[in-house]
């Protein structure tokens, strides 16, 4: 079975289990193939936790959920050295971060020390305890969630940490048709006789690594690469594309955004079964890649501008070479 076929089967299975959230499941797989981390923002009850937990059942890997709270300590995430009196030595006890898929639930409720420990894990694929450094598994993906409704007792993520996330995905409520399907699926899962259908072929880690290599090797013509560079440059030099953009954007995106847009575009093309990257692939992922990296001016916020609206303007004004 080819890697594309295996991943397509995983995608179909995810869509059958996570009803009404195709964008979330698509972005989860994109992050898995692009080897990055995901920040998901949405109201409670929109299957954010279920999505990554279900993904862990469809691939060869383990899953752990960390509930972030204001009293959480870095050692609660990374692990700590435990004293063994029988031999008079310290032994490292690994924390929940040492799993393949990690859900950082309500990440903005954790204080800065915990966020910095998670930042090292995400960026360096390692954690430090005392003088020792420990490598994380080769297959490692963090999906962090934020609740946009309740902000009391939260610690907003700094821009530097937001930049570490490959994409920032917003999850909305399902439509009425999907809501009816959710009811049906929920009744089946609650039934004593019903069993959750298992995926026919679990995707191995080797297949995931092979998919990453294939996605990176997907052909990208020079004009498409130039288009990606021009989109990122437009956020840093918005005056070239309009005085209004210059008034709205205080800081543009970092070079990480260029790299992320390239990798996500390749992963998107790969998931669509294509052997080349087109401008459509770039435009399909640019909102999720740029959304959390743009810093708007006070004037933009006062006039009701949003990052998504500004990205729409950038897409319209930056020409495909």
UniProtKB/TrEMBL annotation:
Family: Belongs to the MoxR family.
Molecular function, one GO term: ATP binding
Coiled coil region boundaries: none
Matches recorded under InterPro entries: ATPase_AAA-3, CbbQ/NirQ/NorQ/GpvN, ChlI/MoxR_AAA_lid, P-loop_NTPase
The keyword Glycoprotein appears for this protein: no
Matching SUPFAM superfamilies: P-loop containing nucleoside triphosphate hydrolases
Pfam families on file: AAA_3, AAA_lid_2
Protein name (record): ATPase, MoxR family
Keywords assigned by UniProt, alphabetized: ATP-binding, Nucleotide-binding
Limits of the ATPase AAA-3 domain: 37-167
Organism in which the protein naturally occurs: Teredinibacter turnerae (strain ATCC 39867 / T7901)
ChlI/MoxR AAA lid domain segment(s): 249-313
Source domain of life: Bacteria
């Amino acid at each position: 079975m080819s890697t594309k076929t295996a991943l397509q089967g995983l995608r179909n299975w995810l869509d059958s289990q996570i009803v009404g959230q195709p964008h979330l499941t698509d972005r989860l797989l994109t992050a898995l193939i692009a080897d990055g981390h995901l920040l998901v923002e949405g109201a409670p009850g929109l299957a954010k936790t279920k999505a990554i937990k279900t993904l862990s059942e469809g691939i060869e890997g383990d899953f752990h959920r960390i509930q972030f709270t204001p009293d959480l300590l870095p050692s609660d995430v990374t692990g700590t050295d435990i004293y063994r009196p029988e031999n008079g030595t310290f032994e490292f006890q690994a924390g929940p971060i040492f799993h393949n898929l990690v859900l950082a639930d309500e990440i903005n409720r954790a204080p800065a020390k915990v966020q910095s420990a998670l930042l090292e894990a995400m960026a360096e694929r390692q954690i430090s305890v005392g003088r020792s450094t420990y490598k994380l598994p080769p297959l490692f993906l963090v999906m962090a969630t934020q609740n946009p409704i309740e902000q009391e007792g939260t610690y907003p993520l700094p821009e530097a940490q937001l930049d570490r996330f490959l994409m920032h995905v917003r999850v909305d409520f399902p439509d009425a048709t999907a809501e009816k399907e959710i009811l049906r699926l929920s009744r089946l899962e609650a039934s004593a006789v019903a069993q959750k259908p298992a995926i026919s072929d679990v995707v191995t880690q080797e297949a995931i690594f092979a998919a990453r290599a294939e996605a990176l090797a997907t052909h990208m013509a020079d004009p498409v690469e130039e288009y990606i560079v021009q989109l990122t440059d437009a956020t840093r030099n918005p005056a070239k594309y309009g005085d209004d953009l210059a008034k709205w954007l205080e800081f543009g995106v970092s070079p990480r955004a260029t790299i992320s847009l390239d990798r996500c575009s390749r992963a998107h093309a790969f998931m669509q079964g294509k052997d080349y990257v087109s401008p459509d692939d770039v435009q399909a992922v640019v909102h999720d890649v740029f959304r959390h990296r743009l810093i708007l001016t006070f004037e933009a916020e006062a006039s009701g501008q949003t990052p998504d609206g500004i990205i729409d303007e950038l897409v319209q004004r930056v020409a495909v070479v």
